[in-house]
Amino acid sequence: MNNYVITSVLVSGMVLIVAGCSHYYRVTDPGSGKSYYTQDIHEGRGGAVKIKDDRTRSTVTLQSSEVREISAEEYEAEVNRTEPIVIRPSASEPPVASQSR
Q: Is-contact 30 65, C-beta < 8 A?
């Protein structure tokens, strides 16, 4: 084989490897502190970002955000994490009175 064919095969292989790489992001709303996890960010007008939160599967648009690239391991751990179950007392139960000393 000549050098041209070898070089073409190597370059084509590298292009396929680079194209297959995924990026993972944590997008945080600084106002609420809530974080969203995505692989794709769409920038809109005035600095707004539109994302699909991979944890909740909802589409979110944030006017102000902090975007940080994270590892695949951190992304997977956060997306597959289950939210804690919050049990609120029913309206018929009286609130617990605090005792003062």
A: yes
